[in-house]
Design brief:
15% strand, 9 helices, single chain, Rossmann fold, alpha/beta, seven-stranded parallel beta sheet
């Protein structure tokens, strides 16, 4: 039997988000943008793209619309509860439901020893990576509980499991907190029909990673089992799988999309 899927099987695979109302925070660039576009490609009815930089999220929305999805750019600072509440209310007012959410917004400090980091940097890291996830879940879950259905993926990191580089203590600690929050929330939400999981990317080429000073990408990639760094689109594939019915028995899981880093 051929390993190449037939047209019917491929069509089903490419419609994992069919008719779903989706939301991506931090959707203007990197993994967030790649996931929003993948949602649209796989049949999403609508994709709300949230972020602080309006031009970026509008460009991401335009990319989604090329696949036939309705896309809406909503300028949002997810560290501010009133803006998170407004974002969720916008989804409800416009579409009446919320089916699949990727809470992706994140912030990584510039690489430096812990003793040189400031309280302001600590606040920026934890407000974006932990507080914002709490705020998003707090406002998204009641909507999904009312539907008795919904899927949420939170962007964590392999750094929350094992820090691959010194100099990112705050980022690593925040992502460890996110993983614990996801697991606890998942146990509460699952009996009410809502699935929560996390994605843990490894070394993936994004603007955030490049600006943080992780190092030369060729050198970083050479140290991984796959001998290369990842691309945002590869992580998006894993996120969409977690948000689809294909992962219906996966709850409270942290899926590493890391080129084998955690296994090595």
């Amino acid at each position: 039997m051929s390993a190449v899927p037939n047209d019917e099987a491929r069509s089903r695979f490419l419609q994992r988000m069919r008719a779903k109302v989706c939301l991506v925070t931090g959707g203007g660039s990197g993994i967030g943008r790649a996931t929003a576009v993948k949602m649209a490609e796989e049949g999403a009815a609508a994709v709300l793209i949230a972020g602080r930089r309006l031009a970026e999220i509008e460009a991401a929305a335009a990319a989604c619309e090329r696949f036939g999805a309705e896309a809406l750019a909503v300028r949002t600072d997810v560290t501010r509860e009133e803006e998170v509440a407004r974002l969720v209310a916008t989804a409800l007012a416009r579409y009446g439901r919320l089916d699949a959410v990727f809470n992706n917004a994140g912030f990584q400090e510039k690489r430096a020893p812990l003793e040189t980091q400031t309280s302001a940097v600590y606040d920026a890291v934890f407000d974006t990576n932990v507080r914002a996830v709490f705020l998003c879940l707090r406002h998204q879950l009641p909507v999904m509980f009312a539907q008795a259905a919904g899927r949420i993926v939170v962007n964590a990191s392999v750094s929350g499991v094992r820090n691959p580089n010194p100099g990112f203590s705050l980022y690593s600690a925040s992502k460890a907190a996110v993983i614990s929050l996801v697991r606890s929330a998942a146990m509460e939400a699952a009996p009410r029909g809502v699935s929560i999981n996390a994605i843990a990317p490894g070394r993936v080429v994004t603007d955030m990673m490049l600006s943080a000073g992780v190092g030369d990408m060729a050198t970083v990639g050479a140290g991984l089992p796959l001998r290369r760094v990842g691309q945002a689109e590869e992580v998006a594939e894993a996120v969409v799988w977690l948000l689809s019915n294909a992962s219906s028995y996966v709850v409270g899981h942290v899926l590493a999309a890391d080129g084998g880093f955690l296994a090595s």
